[in-house]
Structure formats: C-alpha cells, structure tokens
Amino acid sequence: MELLSVQNVSKSFKDHSYTVHAVNDVSLDIHQGEMIAIIGPSGSGKTTLLNLMGIVISPDSGEVYVEGQKASGMNDTMRCRMRNQYFGYIVQDFALIEEDTAMQNILVPTLYSKHKKSSSEYRKLIYSMAEKLQVSDKLKSTVKKLSGGERQRIAIIRSMVCDQKIILADEPTGSLDKDNSTIVMKCLRELVDDFKKTVVIVTHDLNVARQCDRTFNLTGGVLTPCNL
Ligand SMILES: Nc1ncnc2c1ncn2[C@@H]1O[C@H](COP(=O)(O)OP(=O)(O)OP(=O)(O)O)[C@@H](O)[C@H]1O
Ligand SMILES: [Mg+2]
Question: Using a 6 Å CB cutoff, which residues line ligand 1?
Fold first, then answer.
C-alpha cells in the first residue's frame, strides 16, 4: 500500500473577482522510503500541493489517503492528530523561535504529540540526530546565534522528533549557500536511507531535484513526471 496517495486533487482560491486554480487534478502515489522532488515556476501551486498532501488544507475535489486512511472523512480533531502523527513540515524560513534555544525549538512538536516519550528519551534521540547532522554543540544556543545552515538542520530534527514518517520540505535549501545546501541534502538523504523516512521536497534548484528518486514538474497546477 502507498504511504501517501493523492488522487485527482484540485484546489482553487477566489481572489476578489477571479479564481486561481492553484492545483489542478493532481494524482500521485508515494511509497515509504522515497525521496521526491517537485519543481515548477513561482506561483505554479507547489506550496498549495504540499499543504494538500500534509492535510493542512482540504481539496475542493479529490482525495488524500494516508496509509489507506481517507483524510476527507475525518473531523478536525482526527485530521489534526493524523497530521501530527505522520507529517513533519520544513518551511522555507524555518519558523524557529529566535529567542529560544535550538533544543527548546526541537521539543515544540512533542508538546502536542499523542505518543509521548519521556523527556530523557526525547533528549537522547535529539542528541543522536544532532550528532549525525553535526549540530550537537548548538543545541543549547539560542537560534538567533545560528547560521542559516545550522537553523535548517535544527528544523529538520524538529520535523522528525515525533518519529513522523513523512517529511514535507518547502524549499529546504532556498536560502542556503552551496556548502550548507549540500549538508542539508545529505541529511535528508540519510533520513530516507537510514531511517526509512519519506521526503517530498519542493525546490527551484535542479541540483537538489536531481538527488531525489523521482522528480515532477508542476506548471499551472498540473503535475507531470520529468527527467532531469
Ligand atoms: N490562501 C490563498 N489565497 C488566495 N490565493 C492563494 C492562496 N494561496 C495560494 N494562492 C495562489 O495560488 C497560486 C499558487 O500558489 P503557491 O503558493 O502554491 O505557489 P508556489 O508554486 O508555491 O510559488 P512559489 O514558488 O513562489 O513559492 C498563486 O497564484 C497564489 O497567489
Ligand atoms: Mg511556495
């Protein structure tokens, strides 16, 4: 069974007098342990599609299934629970709290998790991830003192601290230089290869897309497979 299945999903936004068809009849099956890239011009619907996949927003038509469970049949509480259980989200500006330490930021999703571990178990997990990503010495620093690449790695750890199976990454290397971009991509690859995570990356960077297992182009809300 697919881990995540998007079937004939469409989403429009009404903006005063006209309607934007942001995502247009998109279907995609994603299996566990895959790394998928979605490229496309600005405004082509990439973030909207990621939000539909992560059941952050609901489609106007079509269905999203997570491990065979239909998202549209659920009430808000169940959908929220499913979102927290399955999805880690990495947004472009990292959305970290500047005045808090890296560790405090990483622990935020655990506050809402249904399957809580003890505080020491979380810390052990976070330190082992941070060591892998070479930021273990930064966990006690406030975020405002961290570089862009370090912040992004902290955001990656936060996206998987509750052991979510699917990581949705919106332009994860968008504001990074080449070296940091390489480190972040290596991290995401390791999450797939070593932890069997599933990663969907939206990117403008063809080098990033080429490192993924499958690539798709989204233009005018229409998704097509592409070879880079
Ligand atoms: N909440 C909203 N209300 C109205 N229009 C929206 C909303 N969200 C997105 N849109 C419109 O839908 C279209 C797709 O937007 P989206 O953010 O998905 O594009 P994108 O491919 O992620 O672009 P970028 O590469 O610039 O991030 C755009 O025309 C955008 O203006
Ligand atoms: Mg976007």
Answer: 13, 15, 20, 22, 40, 42-48
Atom of ligand 1 nearest to the CA of 40: 21
Model pLDDT for residues 120-173, shown as the tens digit of each residue: 999 999 999 899 888 999 999 999 999 888 898 899 899 888 889 999 999 988
Nearest to 76 by CA among 58, 91, 49: 58
Q: How far is the CA of 194 from the centre of ligand 1 (A)?
A: 34
- Beta-carbon contacts of 100 under 8 Å, excluding residues fewer than 6 positions away, are 142, 143
Q: What is the pLDDT of residues 135-148, one digit of tens each?
A: 999 999 999 999 88
How far is Cα 5 from Cα 195, in angstroms, rounded to an integer?
A: 21
Distances (CA, A) of 100 to 49, 54, 113, 175: 31, 26, 20, 21
Domains of the chain: 4-225 (3.40.50.300)
